[in-house]
Specification:
single chain; 11-stranded mixed sheet; 6-stranded mixed sheet; alpha/beta; 15 helices; globular
């Protein structure tokens, strides 16, 4: 395992190089050069979680929710030095004060962990929808091509050894965690890293300074817009586009909204790119004869990927995600033959799980939570059950991405016949009020709306009423067995468990 030691001299040099240093603080003075009392300080761990602090920890005071008591806890556990945007002289003897704590994390972490990113072929994937699917597809191909030497960081789960997986907390890990995990992956002999890169990762500088060997831009539509995340769509799109400036090569969806801007961003920053899509692209995706097959065609097939592929998942939108993954994997040294062998086996937790009720009605469980996701699922539903009713069960999370609510109402208006508006991680908001915001954006009288804030009751009622030709989409929670209410995780059976129970037991 990585066993680094970092001195105050090294930290000061890094901060000066990046124009981040304000001052160094001791009980006697504020200084710009290193005071003699700090000369001997060195650190063998870096943390922002006070529970993990020891006497050799450089403790980072980061985040909008940071409170002085966290630093006090770290000091009680033995830490002697902190790094922050403001002095806490009453709490700790030694402080390193910076202009931007997140940028400081982003420049210190890679050096502390020995720049592990330079020892991995890195693939970063962004987009409003499809990031997780594309990441799972790319990982599966490269795992076959490299004999499981692929680290994997996704919104669902992470792996640093290519074989074992643990649940993820964030779509893109915090900076210190990200580099610690990369270092662990290198120690474990990994050669590649496939990871999702969220807009928030750029907004909060978690990946500042990290250059990906291959970047994938899947699509863009309004999402994550609200006071807690992105104030405007412009800000959201700008943050997403940072992947282009921080990649050595890009893969772009030719049919993405704002494609000309994506292309120009590549051109201005001299980032080579290839395109995929349904038309006018370097690699053309075409649906196959059955819903799980597709073909890739290319006029100049440099990557040798043209031909027929099969997926284990339904939905033509997955054909595009898989094509992006195939291109990324082959650019990273994988093989199209491995894609043909592995893609049919890929299962993604909580995404696109299709079940059948005993009377023939189709049940789909998915994490869908925005306009593009609703649109894709609805179009698939119409393919599977063209004459039946489309019944949704959905809500929207509290305290974030308020713009999703009107987008959901718009998508439901276009496709659904009935919707059960219910609770979905309301947190400190009233789920009934969130449901009312979704309903306010519904533009058709054809859509029947039922308010049922008990999610289990809503799921049960929707599935119970579904007839043979109908389809029920349970959107938002996937495999999660909790609801976030007032800052706590309250037990919930889970959409998938409820659907499976119903599929097995209902006549």
């Amino acid at each position: 395992m990585h066993n680094a030691t970092m001195t105050v001299q090294q930290i000061r040099t890094i901060l000066l190089q990046n124009n981040l240093l304000k001052e160094l603080i001791t009980p006697l003075e504020w200084a710009y050069t290193i005071p003699k009392e700090m000369m001997e300080l060195s650190f063998t761990s870096v943390h922002y979680d006070s529970r993990l602090a020891t006497k050799d920890t450089l403790f980072f005071c980061k985040g909008a929710a940071f409170e002085q008591r966290y630093l006090e806890t770290a000091i009680q556990q033995g830490a002697t030095c902190y790094i922050a945007e403001q002095p806490y002289e009453a709490v700790a003897a030694f402080g390193i004060i910076v202009t931007d704590i997140r940028e400081a994390m982003a420049v210190i972490a890679p050096v502390f962990y020995g720049n592990p990113q330079n020892q991995l072929v890195t693939i970063g994937i962004t987009g409003t929808k499809g990031k997780t699917s594309c990441a799972y597809f790319a990982r599966a191909i490269l795992a076959k091509s490299t004999n499981d030497k692929v680290a994997f960081f996704s919104s669902e789960e992470n792996s640093v050894d290519g074989r074992s997986f643990r649940s993820a907390v964030l779509t893109t890990p915090e900076t210190l965690d990200l580099y610690a995990m990369m270092a662990e992956a290198v120690d474990n002999g990994m050669s590649h890293l496939v990871m999702e890169v969220s807009s928030q990762a750029y907004k909060t500088k978690r990946v500042a300074g990290l250059t990906f060997d291959i970047g994938v831009f899947l699509n863009i539509s309004p999402d994550h817009i609200g006071p807690v995340e992105h104030p405007t769509f412009d800000d959201y799109l700008y943050c997403k586009r940072q992947l282009i400036r921080n990649s050595r090569q890009m893969i772009l969806n030719r049919q993405s909204d704002h494609y000309p801007l994506l292309r120009e961003t590549c051109e201005v920053h001299q980032v080579p790119f290839i395109t995929y899509g349904r038309a006018e692209a370097d690699y053309i995706v075409q649906d196959g004869v059955d819903p799980k097959s597709f073909t890739i065609a290319a006029s100049s097939d440099v990557l040798q990927v043209a031909g027929l592929y099969q997926l284990g998942l339904l939905g033509s939108f997955n054909h595009e995600n898989a094509t992006a993954a195939i291109l990324a994997a082959c650019l990273a040294g994988g093989h199209a033959s491995d894609a043909r062998e592995e893609l049919p086996k890929v299962v993604i937790p909580g995404r696109m799980v299709v079940l059948e009720k005993n009377n023939g009605a189709v049940l789909i469980v998915d994490y869908a939570h925005n306009y593009l996701s609703f649109q894709s699922l609805s179009q698939l539903a119409r393919q599977l059950r063209p004459t039946g009713k489309l019944i949704f069960v959905t809500g929207s999370a509290g305290g974030k991405a308020e713009s999703r609510r009107s987008d959901m109402g718009r998508a439901l208006s276009e496709y659904a016949d009935k919707v059960y508006l219910t609770s979905d991680d309301p947190n400190f908001e009233d789920p009934q009020a969130i449901a009312a915001e979704i309903a306010a954006a519904i533009t058709t009288d054809r859509l029947a709306v039922v308010y049922q804030m008990d999610r289990e009751a809503a799921v049960t009622a929707a599935i119970a009423e579904a007839q043979k030709e109908d389809i029920v989409i349970l959107a938002g929670k996937g495999t999660e067995t909790f609801l976030k209410v007032n800052g706590q995780k309250e037990p919930y059976p889970g959409d998938l468990i409820l659907a499976q129970r119903f599929a097995a037991n209902t006549q």
